[in-house]
Design goal:
With 361 residues, this protein is an alpha/beta fold. 29% of the residues lie in helices and 20% in strands. It is built from nine helices and 15 strands. The strands form three sheets. It has a seven-stranded mixed β-sheet with strand order 5-6-9-10-14-11-12. A hairpin with a 5-residue loop joins strand 5 (123-128) and strand 6.
Amino acid sequence: MASLVNTRILMLSDTHGDALKRTVTTQADVAIHCGDLTEESKLDEFTAAIQLLKGIDAPLKLVIAGNHDFTLDDRAFEGVLAQADPTIDSDLLTKTYGKLGDARRLFEAADVREAGIVYLTEGSHSFTLKNGAKLTVYASPYTASVSTGWGFTYNPRDPAQEHTWDIPEAVDIAITHGPAKGVLDYTDSRTRAGSASLFAAIARAKPRVHCFGHIHEAWGAKKVTWRSELSEEPSHFTDIDQDESELIASLATLRKGKFDSEDDIARKASKRYEYEAQGSCGTSTEIRKGEQTLFVNAAIEGSEEGDQHLPWLVEIELPKEIKKVESKKRRRSSGSEAGEKTSKYQRIMTDTAKNNGSSGK
């Protein structure tokens, strides 16, 4: 059985160009930003987001885009530029939003790379962390939307546009901007805003963690226990064992409720104070790989003007990186064997040539 390494992961999303109002006081092994780095996809907002990431105490910071970050999506950016008011000064547009690829190039600057910031495109990526753990993630910035003008979107009402979530079973963490349908995706308008196809993909792959944002009011974390046998088309109705699942925290568990007792109010206030002092909401719950997934909605921006939720600090166990080192003795042996084979073949060729020569005379 592979040895495991305890790993701290700081998760945040939907900062929308703002700085964090509370300092995260705990060091992490890796930080993950789940998109919507900006509000209007302006270059100065990306610069502010990069400064935020530089301030996080983690040697590796993984970043994906969100629907607000449309200048990172060339096709969406081209569409926005094509529909821009022709009376707007083109130089001003370029200064504000940049040209195609400019926003992406901000993440390729030497100082950004030195800060450990890595911009992830869609797909699987593996990293060896400084604590010795091997981390494999699946990243996707795509969200379902019937509106146009956003980045990295697809229309869920059009079967031809349905997104394919190619999440391997070996993935430790799935990083998406949008939520899966049925888990931490409930909106103020009392609808489920998550993707059904994403839920099915998560259910089949069963990563240790699925972190996301997008639906600000659904901030929280839930440990989901999967049923032993999945449906042909997995959904949150049929494939979550609710009796064995656990809501770690949500806005409702931390904020004063309409029917709360005085004890409830005091308990929530104490918990909020504890989290705010450390600048994050933490959990170190055990996750059984292949049986459970920790869902984390890490949206920072709140529903009210100026309101911010806390980032999540999650402790999980990851497999230790196994380094394959070939011994010098083995290499010498291999080289010797190769030499012997070469000599043998050379002798055979020489003998054959002599015999052929003799018979030909």
